[in-house]
């Protein structure tokens, strides 16, 4: 089929590469505000041609919106205005309630399938795109009952081609779960980077000493604000809930240390170790 | 040379494998309270023979202490009591001021070299040992002026054989830097695991959704209390300093979200992104 990728960056680009490899995509239009991204995507054969929004959308069987979540929510109604009953629109955003609510009453709502691939890195742009990015990861489809059967089938075919396992979920539940499973990790990582940058004045020492443990906890702090401010904004209530709980949990470690209560400290750590049974 | 490894676990075992591979170790004694570790280490050819403390120490050119930091601090004076001026003792602990102070006035102080390899994983035991673990990482030698030249030379040869780059540091400075570069990462990771385990009741959902970002931030929460309680205990003041700063930094994210001050949120994230220039 013919596909338009709106946002030829890390996520859109990785999807394009894999869908072409799997023979799902015969022709791919790239739509992006950044001429640099378009040029890179053309050169890397991620897309076949540049298009403007109307041209791309009108000529595609599938339109994939892979731009920051606030922009996606704003753009989706315009895209749906352009599509016929033979076309499918999907997004790839990290928050789902906002976008689903934005088109709740749109006459073409059923052409849209709300999707979130549980993958990302701290990098961005088409040069970071990798075909195998999604393999083995979860692909969440939200509010599937609001999508037409054929649109849903198209997206399921796409998600299978990405080698992801599909999870169906309500958009509100999705946003609660991702606050825990993804959004809070980014906040702790940003805060950890700021902690170190604030107090550890010897940058050379950071660089020389940094252990693999530190690098893996701080890796996410490299993620760009263009993507993450909109996510935190759209999922504000859930993120605040989790953040409050996280600060409470950190205070327990603080109390254990201040009171030199090492039995309690051991208890806190032993409890945290239970994550071994869940994350393999 | 002949080497005794006291604590034939992840760190001691990995050092043994590499030192044998490099031809530095001709014969390796294993000394460990855990018979299981001894049996595993023998089977994996990490050690050549089991020994008790006195037998191992008396017959070795180099004694490597790779046990939890509180136990190491307690044991080191006994080991130094046993050694002659032709033998060298090194440790591999994550805190350094405590152990250095414990032997400050020991008549054999100069036979000891305080060492910390900046590597570890959330796993333990000889079965997790890997010869290449240390390659390219930093190996910190503390208070080198308190060690005899020949003992220092021996340890430098060992650290080079581990393919680590050597950093010399004062023990107090080491403990401040590692509070930032390693210890706080473990606390945030434990607290993050506890946050998720406290509020996210659907363990199956955690497992299914967990993204690579979450896994990398929570990975350290699998680390065992036997190792980490003693580290936090010995580095309490520094860890508390950093933890307080970290909670302050998290509160800034909380304030930005609560007040819907997204310019401030962007500023916080942009500041955190500076870690890109430091951690490559």
UniProtKB/TrEMBL annotation, chains A, B:
GO terms for molecular function: NAD+ binding; prephenate dehydrogenase (NAD+) activity; prephenate dehydrogenase (NADP+) activity. InterPro entries: 6-PGluconate_DH-like_C_sf, NAD(P)-bd_dom_sf, PDH_C, PDH_N, Preph/Arog_dehydrog, Prephen_DH. Signal peptide: none annotated. Keywords: Oxidoreductase. Its EC number is 1.3.1.12. It is an enzyme of class 1 (oxidoreductase). The keyword Oxidoreductase applies. Pfam families: PDH_C, PDH_N. Residues 1-280 form the Prephenate/arogenate dehydrogenase domain. One of its GO terms (biological process) is tyrosine biosynthetic process. This is Prephenate dehydrogenase. It comes from Chryseobacterium flavum.
């Amino acid at each position: 089929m013919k596909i338009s990728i709106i946002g030829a960056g890390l996520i859109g680009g990785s999807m394009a590469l894999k869908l072409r490899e799997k023979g799902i995509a015969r022709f791919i239009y790239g739509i992006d505000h950044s001429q640099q991204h378009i040029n890179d995507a053309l050169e890397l054969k991620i897309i076949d041609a540049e298009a403007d929004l109307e041209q791309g959308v009108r000529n595609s069987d599938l339109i994939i919106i892979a731009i920051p979540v606030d922009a996606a929510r704003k753009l989706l109604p315009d895209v749906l205005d352009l599509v016929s009953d033979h076309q499918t629109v999907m997004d790839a955003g990290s928050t789902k309630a906002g976008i689903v609510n934005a088109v709740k009453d749109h006459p073409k709502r059923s052409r849209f399938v709300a999707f979130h691939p549980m993958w990302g890195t701290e990098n961005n742009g088409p040069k970071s795109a990798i075909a195998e990015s999604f393999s083995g990861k979860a692909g969440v489809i939200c509010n599937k009952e609001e999508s037409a059967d054929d649109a849903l089938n198209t997206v399921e075919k796409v998600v299978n081609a990405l080698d992801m396992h599909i999870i169906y979920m309500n958009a509100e539940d999705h946003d609660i779960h991702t606050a825990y499973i993804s959004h809070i990790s980014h906040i702790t990582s940003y805060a950890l980077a700021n902690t170190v940058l604030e107090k550890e004045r010897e940058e050379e020492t950071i660089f020389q000493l940094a252990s693999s443990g530190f690098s893996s906890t701080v890796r996410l702090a490299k993620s760009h604000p263009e993507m993450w401010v909109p996510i935190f904004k759209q999922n504000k209530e859930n993120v605040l809930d989790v953040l409050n709980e996280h600060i409470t949990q950190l205070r327990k470690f603080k109390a254990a240390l201040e009171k030199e209560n090492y039995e309690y400290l051991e208890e806190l750590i032993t409890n945290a170790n239970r994550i071994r049974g869940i994350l393999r």
